[in-house]
Amino acid sequence: MKPLRLSLLILGFFSLLCSTSGDSSGIKRMKMQFATAMNVLLGAFPLITCFVFNIRIEGENYLPIPMYRHVASFLSMFKLLVIGVIIIGKDPFALFGMQPPAFWEWGQGNKIYACMMVFFFSNMIENQLLSTGAFEITLNDVPVWSKLESGHLPSMQQLVQILDNEMKMNVHMNSRPHHHS
């Protein structure tokens, strides 16, 4: 069971590394990164070679703080309201006795562009509010890396060292004689 969890950890880590590469030749680069990473890890941990193909990945969302979720939800609804007002062409500034600003007049002359800008800009802000950046690595239900605490992803060398230390500690703990009374 322990080698299976290690295999899950390794595949999950490299899935994330591959998915975060923003290269235009994405699939080819992901395959090359995955193959290179697996070769490095399998060279460092030859005992897990036979377990690499029995992999189950479990992921879960790490929720942002409630205030960010509420702001993102409000922004989502506000975005739809603004797009609706742009399409209808009703001047919301007249309700407050104000002259419409230049960006509103431009938006009325370019409704499709204005709606797209509101949509994409709002989505960008919503995604930033909802993204925690969490990448937590556990081995046998023991946390071994936290991006939230460290602020960055582990390098390949750090990952190999972490896994090596954890496996040595597990072997040492499992080799201790158990005394039953």
From TrEMBL:
The chain crosses the membrane at residues 32-55, 67-88. The keyword Transmembrane applies. Pfam families: Rdx. The keyword Phosphoprotein does not apply. It is found in: Endoplasmic reticulum membrane. Its main location: endoplasmic reticulum. One of its GO terms (molecular function) is thioredoxin-disulfide reductase (NADPH) activity. Selenoprotein with thioredoxin reductase-like oxidoreductase activity. This is Selenoprotein T. It comes from Oryzias latipes.
